[in-house]
Every structure is written in C-alpha cells, then in structure tokens.
Amino acid sequence: AQSVTQLGSHVSVSEGALVLLRCNYSSSVPPYLFWYVQYPNQGLQLLLKYTTGATLVKGINGFEAEFKKSETSFHLTKPSAHMSDAAEYFCAVSERNRDDKIIFGKGTRLHILP
Amino acid sequence: DTGVSQDPRHKITKRGQNVTFRCDPISEHNRLYWYRQTLGQGPEFLTYFQNEAQLEKSRLLSDRFSAERPKGSFSTLEIQRTEQGDSAMYLCASSSNQGGTETQYFGPGTRLLVL
Question: Quick one: pLDDT at residue A14?
C-alpha cells in the first residue's frame, strides 16, 4: 500500500527565507508524486507533479521539488518565502498505473513571519 | 471561470437529517472524484466516476453515503441519517484521462457541520 509522511505539521519561516517542506513516500511500484496547496476555505491547487524523467520538477509560484528515489523523498522548496505563501501544503502519491487514485499526506501548514 | 464548482459551500444540519451536495466538473473532464477532509488531515478518497460509471468506492463510504453521476456530467453526493462524525469538508475533483498523466482539479469544497 502507498503512503505519504509529511514531517512537521507546522513550519514557520521568515519572509525572504528558504522554504523547505519535507515529504517521504512509500510505494511498491514507481510512483507519481504531487504537491498541492490549499488556501483557507478553498480547494486544493496543484503546485507541481513528478511523473518520469527529470527528477527536479519546477512548479508554480517559484516552488520546486526533487524526486530522490534512494531516499524515497520529494521535498518541496522555494528560495525566498513571500507572505502570500502562507497556506496548507499536501504531498501526495499515486501508482504509475493507477494515477486515478491519489493518497494524500496529512499536510504541513506554512507560516510566514514578517 | 470554468473550474470545478460545488454547491452549497456550507451546510449545517441536525443529526439524522439527509443532505445532498452537488459537484459540476470541468466540462471536458470524464473523471470525477469525491474526497472527505477532516480537520488536520489530508483529503481521503471516497469514490470516483469515469463518465457515468462509478468505478471504485472506499471503505470509508458507508451505506449511508451514495453518489451518482447520471449523465456523466455533474455528480451528487448524498448522506442519509447524518451523524456528527460526518462533519467534514467534502471535496470534488475532476480530471481527464485522455492523453498523458491526468491531473485532478479540485473544487472549493462543501463544508458540512452536523449538530
């Protein structure tokens, strides 16, 4: 069975500092990996996804993530945090032949300090 | 805006009542998903449709829950005899599996509070 573990339910960074949100996955087959963002009282928006090919994936709003198979990780980073980045972030995994079924982590709430 | 829409956005009901939620997917999308999200958790898969066919249901979907997508367009999720434990955000997503890896696009959700 697939699963996702997000390390840290809350992360605080100062405006302008590096954002690093950690995600480790478990999958018995090659995975597809996703990061979604959820702003208050809104649905989820896809930030980026990894399917095959280049392991460094660039997404919207300056975010990127790197697939590291040896570490079973897919950490999300952004070089410089902005106040508008404050939101809940979800890492998710699906099987390559079952990309219709996505398993989400519990989420990490990102707080931006002025 | 031609994104996924859900109605209502908020619903307060008393325990034991029935509620129905509606989801309108992106028009060209053939797949439609329902998820439930409780406080402090990520979305949990409930069920999904490809066109009008319901292809999979989670064990989370008790017999009090029923979902339909009669014409392969909008979908409804009904909860009968609601319980306080049903209080959650119900999210709908849609996607197209035609051409490449599908991406699920989410609606704003319906927040249910059962008193």
Answer: 97
